[in-house]
């Protein structure tokens, strides 16, 4: 894995940093004026995105025949800048998008051997005592009837789909031609 100084030598890279899964900043280097506070905030944001992708990748791996884990890296581009993260999701750079050589950048950031990356999947974390799995439905609250399907949110529906408890979809009555809902538009 490249050092932070080696990452800074790549065309367009203006900052490089390394962080822990909890968002703690391990180290950073910058060729611009970047305060330690901004570097720490960036580490927290990047660790959160890495955690989100690890959760998604674990779920997709379990639900499909595709292998999405372990994570190798991710990127976000917006405006004039790109954040590219590798090292199993824990080492990254800020790069000017117009000057970036993404092939070179990911060659350096993403290693084929990610076995040295910290544990990242939810199932590797020790369970907390008395804490329910985030995939388990909330217990029924006294006096509150179960919500109708139409009233439930995206997370409720996603949880049911992941657990294989999804209700069958209802067919919408169609008009005589079969291409529009009954009663017109």
Main β-sheet description: 5 strands, antiparallel
Mean pLDDT: 78
Question: What is the CATH level 1 assignment of the domain at 4-121?
Answer: Alpha Beta
Helix count, DSSP H or I runs of 4 or more residues: 4
The name of the CATH architecture of the domain at 4-121 is 2-Layer Sandwich
What is the straight-line distance between the termini?
Answer: 58 Å
Task: Based on the model shown, name its key terms.
185 residues, alpha+beta, Beta-Lactamase, five-stranded antiparallel β-sheet, elongated
Topology:
Layout: H1 4-8, E1 13-19, E2 25-30, H2 36-63, E3 74-78, E4 81-86, E5 91-96, H3 102-109, H4 154-162
Antiparallel strand pairs: 1-2, 1-5, 3-4, 4-5
Structure description:
Helices cover 27% and strands 16% of the residues. The protein contains 4 helices and 5 strands, in the order H-E-E-H-E-E-E-H-H. Strands 2-1-5-4-3 form a 5-stranded antiparallel beta sheet, sandwiched between helices. The radius of gyration is 22 Å and the shape is elongated. Mean pLDDT is 78; it is low at 112-142.
């Amino acid at each position: 894995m490249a050092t932070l100084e080696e990452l800074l030598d790549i065309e367009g890279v203006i900052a490089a940093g390394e962080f822990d899964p909890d968002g703690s900043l391990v180290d950073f280097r910058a060729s611009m004026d970047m305060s330690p506070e901004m570097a720490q905030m960036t580490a927290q944001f990047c660790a959160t995105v890495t955690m989100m992708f690890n959760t998604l990748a674990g779920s997709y791996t379990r639900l499909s025949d595709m292998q999405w884990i372990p994570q190798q890296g991710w990127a976000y581009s917006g405006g004039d800048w790109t954040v590219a993260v590798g090292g199993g999701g824990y080492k990254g750079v800020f790069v000017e998008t117009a000057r970036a050589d993404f092939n070179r950048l990911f060659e350096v950031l993403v290693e084929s051997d990610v076995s040295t990356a910290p544990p990242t999947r939810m199932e590797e974390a020790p369970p907390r005592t008395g804490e329910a799995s985030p995939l388990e439905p909330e217990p029924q609250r006294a006096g509150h009837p179960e919500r109708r399907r139409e009233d439930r949110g995206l997370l409720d529906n996603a949880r049911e789909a992941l657990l294989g408890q999804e209700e069958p979809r209802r067919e919408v009555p169609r008009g005589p031609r079969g291409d529009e809902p009954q009663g017109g538009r």
